[in-house]
Amino acid sequence: MAIRTRKKQSPVRLWLLVALLVVVCAVIFLLPAAEESVPAQQATEQEDEAAATTLVKVGMQAPDFTVTMFDGSTLTLSEQKGKVVLVNFWATWCPPCRQELARVQNDIVDRFADQPFVFIPISRAEEMQTVAAFREQMGYTFPMGLDPERKIYDLYASNFIPRNFLIDGEGKVVVASVGYEPEEFDALIQKIEEMLKQ
Which residues pair with 198 in a beta bridge? Predict the structure, then answer.
């Protein structure tokens, strides 16, 4: 009867196995961190692209315009001198615009009523019928401007909505923002309050 002897495992083989295990653990541990850096990079690229499409920057004179409002009246920016003005570009199909507009009645219109403040929300590239249906659906009654041919929007930007341009009493842009973030909108409200106290 033959006795089999068990071969001793080579220490080199054991070390290779341990090294492989360490590498696999390191990859698993570091992978989430690498994935998290991708959204940060994408966010930076989006911010750069948004900045590149903003034609009117902070400190610049706001281009003058006359907008036809939903009720048929007209409003001219240059006639608002001495007042704080918030120009907002939006569209009915835009989810962030809808989120922002949901805050407008309480946080903008009602809050700054009877103050030297004018809110001009302008629907970008939409016909009156579309805006009318949207207003009825959402129950909005505050004034809205119409820019069906993007003539006003194109003075301020070449892409992306919602956009806000906060303009001081001298007609200079104090804040130019793109997109909707609750914190950014809160900061915009705070800035309006500060400007109205000056």
Answer: none
Fold topology of 66-197:
Glutaredoxin (3.40.30)
Q: Give the tens place of pLDDT for each residue, 85-126.
A: 999 999 999 999 999 999 999 999 999 999 999 999 999 999
Token pair 């590239």 is found at 125
Domain ranges of the chain: 11-52, 66-197
Contact 173, 162 (CB under 8 A): no
- CB-based contact 70:103 (threshold 8 Å): no
b/e 89-105 (16+ beta carbons within 10 angstroms → b):
bbbbebeebbebbeebe
Residue type for 109, please? V
Tokens representing 160? 């992306």
Give me the amino acid identity at 116. Answer: P
Res 12: pLDDT: 72
Amino acid at 97: C
- What secondary structure, in 3-state letters, does the chain show? CCCCCCCCCCHHHHHHHHHHHHHHHHHHHHHHHHHHHHHHHHHHHHHHHHHHCECCCCCCECCCCEEEECCCCEEEHHHHCCCEEEEEEECCCCHHHHHHHHHHHHHHHHCCCCCCEEEEEEEECCCHHHHHHHHHHHCCCCCCEEECCCCCHHHHECCCCCEEEEECCCCEEEEEEECCCHHHHHHHHHHHHHHHHC
